[in-house]
Amino acid sequence: MVGSAAGAGAGLCIHQVTLMESCDFRQSTECLARNNVAGTAVWRAKLEEIGVGQAARLLADAGVRAVSLCAGGLLTEPGAAASRAALDDNRRWLDAAAAIGAATMVTLTGGLPNGSRDLEAARQRAKERLAQLLPHARAAGVRLALEPLHPMVCGYRSVISSLREANDWIDDIGAGDELGIALDSYAVWWEAGLAAEIARAGARIVNFHCADWLADTADVRLDRGMPGDGLIDNRGIWRMVKETGFAGPIEVEIFSARNWWKRDPDEVVGIVKERVAEIA
Q1: Is residue 145 assigned to a domain?
Q2: Fewer CB within 10 Å: C terminus or N terminus of the chain?
């Protein structure tokens, strides 16, 4: 049964990036609160503008929960110095996630280093460094949520592009509960065998991100559609995720330089709630 827009906020998380150009940290938090949206994914750029302490207070005062911190990772640069810097940065971000009460830190592998074409070496570095972050994640009480991205951004954002690869990496690393998966419908809707990989992931899925792929998209990263406006069967993917026992919220994450970022934030949030009610 399709839910109501009025009741969609309780099971909903709207990422700060969905309101990226129209709101700062305080404004986005207040907008979500007055529209009865219970959760947000905090974006590092917004967090760094105001600091961890103030961010935690704003969220608590508004009654908006930090579902996750986006995004950590970026683990592919070669060399010992780059490795130390990436690991130190991620440990700091994990501590920040814990301080604002986020249960997960969405983690991207990073892309190919400048001038490199050695994709397998980049993947190996990212996998090894991801494994090295597990003890700190465990100590911080924050789960790393590995997020594969669409293959068209393999070169500069994520050297893994499928849920199958994310599952394989977790198997290879032998990680426990400190490493899970952020499943983004925008990134994996195209994947052959997606239903089987969702079932295989099971309890590893710790975040579910939702947007839509526009048939005539002008930019694969910055022209995401509102759920219902494109080609993705978000309702079907959400049903498969729920069948794994996933109990988290639908997280709407829209990068939209040409459309949604230009609109009034209350209008955007209202439409998000209507569309999520149709999915859930």
Answers
A1: yes
A2: N
Has this prediction a pTM greater than 0.85? yes
**Which residues, 6+ apart, have CB-to-CB distance to 244 below 8 Å?**
198, 199, 201, 202, 203, 205
Cβ neighbours, 10 Å, residue 144:
28
The tens digit of pLDDT for each residue in 213-271 reads 999 999 999 999 999 999 999 999 999 999 999 999 999 999 999 999 999 999 999 99
The amino acid at residue 159 is V
Closest of 56, 41, 46 to residue 100, by C-alpha = 56
CATH number (domain holding residue 108): 3.20.20.150
How many structural domains is the chain composed of?
1
- Residue 32's alpha-carbon distances to 40, 123, 143, 204, 210, in angstroms, are 8, 37, 24, 28, 17
Report d(CA 255, CA 172) in Å as an integer: 32
| In a domain? residue 247 | yes
Residue 2 lies in a domain: no
Helix (H/G/I), strand (E/B), else coil: 66: strand
Q: Is residue 216 part of a domain?
A: yes
